[in-house]
Amino acid sequence: MNFLNKAQIIGNVTRDPDIRQTKAGQPVTTIGVATNRRFRDASGEVREEAEFHNVVCWGKLAELAGQLLKKGTKVFFEGRLQTRSWDDESGVKHYRTEIVAQDMIVLSARQYADSDGDASVDDVPVEPGGEDLVF
User: How confident is the model at residue 126 (pLDDT cuts 50, 70, 90)?
Assistant: First the structure.
């Protein structure tokens, strides 16, 4: 991966993933991710800013992102930056810079719902030898 074109973000998913397929049958998922930063302004007041990113996943990663992510999930993405452009109906040129994901790590604890739809720790499957793992 070209170091100058590399992107790594940790943020929260802003909307449920949009899962589609190309005409050739290739899975593609688009995800909105918000990153936040806190800082002190010139007057010493603590401020917070949010930056919004568009992430595109292809192939198996697209399928996994569609299954594992939902609005509010904290996630890490690594990939490359890509800017594309298009002209709208009135001839105005638009640009969009996206992160084309090559790796993803879900950072939020996974929630398992009981029959009432409420999350319960008792519903978390336990792998052999993993009884002391906490999700």
Answer: very low
Range of the domain at 11: 3-109
**SS3 assignment for 87-104:** ECCCCCEEEEEEEEEEEE
CATH number of the domain enclosing 16: 2.40.50.140
31: in domain: yes
| Type of residue numbered 92 | V
Bridge partners of residue 44, in order along the sequence = none
pLDDT tens-digit readout, 84-93:
999 999 999 9
Q: How many CA atoms lie within 13 A of 123 on its CB side?
A: 12
pTM for this prediction? 0.74
In angstroms, the CA 108 to CA 75 distance is: 7
DSSP state string for 28-69 = EEEEEEEEEEEEE-TTS-EEEEEEEEEEEEEHHHHHHHHHH-
Q: How many whole angstroms separate alpha carbon 17 and alpha carbon 68?
A: 9
Q: How far apart (Å, rounded) are the C-alpha atoms in residues 17 and 54?
A: 11
